[in-house]
Amino acid sequence: MPITTTRAQRRKLAIENEKWPATLKEVPEEEWRRKGPPPGGVIRVFRSRDFLVQVYSETGPVLARLSIGRTSLEGGRWRDGISWDELQRLKRECGFGAYHAVEVFPADCDLVNVANLRHLWVLLDAPTFAWRRGG
After folding, report:
1. The domain that contains 45 carries what CATH number?
2. What is the pTM of this model?
C-alpha cells in the first residue's frame, strides 16, 4: 500500500528523525495517545532516529509482541531491510534482552503484508527448539 507524500513532508520526516537518538527511547504515553487511539493492545512505544517499535500486550505463553518498522520512506513505502542484528538489538533496547522471541511466517492463506513491518513475539519461556550456548 503506497504512501503518498510531498517533498516537504518527506523533508519534515527526515528532520524529525534526526532529533531522535541512535538507540531507542521510550515515547511518553501522553505523546503517543494524544495522536489518536492506539491500535488495540499497544502498551508502550519506543522511537529512535531509524526505528519505531510498538509493544503490544499479549497472553501467555507470549509476554509481548513487538511491531518494528523503520522511520524513513523509500519509494512510496516505509523503508525495508531490518537485519537480524538490528532486531536483536531493538528487542534488548525495549527491555526484553533476557527473553527469547520468535518471528512467524504465516501460511499463504493468512498472509497480511500492508507495510514493511517486522513482528517479534516475546516468549515467557524459552522454546524447546531454542539454541543454547555450549549445548
Report:
1. 2.60.40
2. 0.90
